[in-house]
Design a protein that fits this description.
The protein has 146 residues and is an all-alpha fold. Helices cover 83% and strands 0% of the residues. The longest helix has 57 residues. The radius of gyration is 22 Å and the shape is elongated.
């Protein structure tokens, strides 16, 4: 009888630890998908940014469009920063958050300059450099699930 109880107890423990492992794997896959989607959004923004900046120099509608897109990107940054990463991805998430902080600061500076009637070349803002830094982390994210 004691042997049966021991076997049942061990089986339950193995089953519960297996569920925890499955949960961690699912969490990692979900995080990798969310992070990949975020980085693709950043890259899309990066592709649109030069045209938006050129249009902003030309007229008020262009400035409003650029401002709107910069604000939308700040919202995306905020949403991503709220994600709780799985344990295995915490260091990577912290790297992205560090880059996001620089990204958001550069956007804020650009918006402040725009309010003061200044539209600087993008190369001087740090926005494109920070986007590149964030984009380079995509490979690391994809390795989480491979």
């Amino acid at each position: 009888m004691r042997r049966k109880i021991t076997i049942i107890a061990i089986s339950c423990l193995l089953l519960l630890s297996g569920c925890s492992l499955i949960s961690e794997v699912n969490s990692t896959v979900e995080y990798a998908n969310d992070a990949t989607e975020y980085i693709e959004t950043v890259q899309k923004f990066s592709n649109q940014l030069p045209t938006l900046a050129k249009d902003a120099v030309r007229d008020e509608a262009g400035r409003e469009s650029l401002e709107s897109e910069l604000m939308a990107m700040k919202e995306e940054i905020g949403k991503f920063n709220q994600i709780k990463p799985p344990t295995i991805a915490e260091d990577l998430h912290n790297q992205i958050m560090d880059s996001n902080k620089k990204f958001e600061e550069a956007i804020d500076l650009y918006l402040t300059d725009m309010e003061n009637g200044i539209i600087r070349p993008l190369e001087e803002t740090g926005i494109l450099t920070t986007i590149t830094d964030i984009s380079t982390l995509l490979e690391n994210i994809q390795q989480l699930v491979n």
